[in-house]
Amino acid sequence: MIKVGLILGIAGACRTDELVNLTVDDIEDVGSSLIVKIPNTKTKDSPRIFVVTDVEICLNCFENTCPFVLPTSSISAFFCILERGKCSSQPVGKNTMGKIPSVVASYLKLPDVACYTGHCLRRSSS
Q: Record's InterPro entries (predicted)?
């Protein structure tokens, strides 16, 4: 989840709540790229669309770490909590999504890990 959240967050300059609200239907695989639609944005009435072009790396992360939609699940959230190797029907929350930059900073052994918040995803994008 961390890899996929990081890729989508930086590629689309996403806020944490935009990532939390992503559904399986918002991501379309067109072969050479992934088209991601953010339906509800904070500042615009129309959906925001962005493309992830490095599909080989991204699809590898999606296949290995992407949450699986349970057939019996009534939710369609893209990010679901993984417990003991199994995907639950509980979606990932905003606070868990906001911890992704600090987890990455900790992995990279950067100083002041607590300074890396969910807003870093938005600020780090180009």
A: DNA_brk_join_enz (IPR011010), Integrase-like_cat_sf (IPR013762)
Length reported for the chain: 126
C-alpha–C-alpha distance, residues 97 and 4, integer Å: 11
Whole domain around residue 19: which residue ranges?
Answer: 2-124
| Domain CATH code at residue 73 | 1.10.443.10
Q: What is the pLDDT of residues 79-107, one digit of tens each?
A: 877 777 666 677 888 888 888 888 988 99
Q: CA-CA-CA-CA torsion for 89, 95, 100, 101, nearest 10 degrees?
A: 170
Strand pairing partners for 35?
Answer: 28, 51
Per-residue pLDDT for 67 more than 50? no
Angle formed at CA 100 by CA 96 and CA 102, multiple of 5 degrees: 110
How far does CA 41 lie from the centroid of its chain? 15
Rounded CA separation 21/93 (Å): 9
Number of domains present in the structure of the chain: 1
